[in-house]
Amino acid sequence: MAKKKKKEQEFIAYMTSSDVAKMAGVKVSTVTAARTKGHLHPASSIGNNWGYLEPEVRRWMEWREKYPPESRRWGWNGSGQPRPHGVAVKSEKK
Question: What is the pLDDT of residues 60-77, one digit of tens each?
Fold first, then answer.
């Protein structure tokens, strides 16, 4: 009898919140806040733990560079969404 070759299974590596925080150079609470606000999208949820894929983390890191915290602090109605260019911060409006 001929032996069947076993198919190699591909495993998806999920990153934990602490892994993401180390990669991005931020605190775990920043990762949690980004997930809550919808800026960082988890790929899986196992109990209380969240799993993230590396491409999504890299996208979030680029987004953070493009829109630093001080540029999105107020946002529209306190949403935290970045303001479009040309719109002044509330304290600067006259």
Answer: 999 888 877 766 655 555
